[in-house]
Amino acid sequence: MKAFQSIVIASAFAASVFASPFASAHASLKASDPLAGSTVASAPKQISLTFNEKIEQAFSTVRLNDSTGKAVTAAKATVDVDSPAVLRLETPTLAAGAYTVKWAVAGHDGHRRTGEFSFTVK
């Protein structure tokens, strides 16, 4: 009986260890172009955000604001068809200055995550 209890406890522990990464797995930003905090010599034609998992188009947005907080574009971000973990926002011609990218996405689990970062155009 004691051996059976040990097996049950060990199995429950192993299951919790292996399942925990999936239970807390939400879409998180892995990379951006332009890079967060960077200064770029020329204005980007688009903002590209790469996440750790596929994101849902219907629940994902990107906003680009200038240094005064005013929205720079009314365009909607789109999920890359070939790489569904990438979200792109086409940008107009940007003047020199500081910009803030604000994003909100939902991954396959439906949980919404938000974040922001800034970059500067010389």
UniProtKB/TrEMBL annotation:
SUPFAM superfamilies: E set domains (SSF81296). Residues 1-25 form the signal peptide. Residues 26-121 form the CopC domain. Keywords: Copper, Metal-binding, Signal. Its main location: other. It comes from the Bacteria. Pfam families: CopC (PF04234). It is found in: Cell envelope. This is Copper resistance protein CopC.
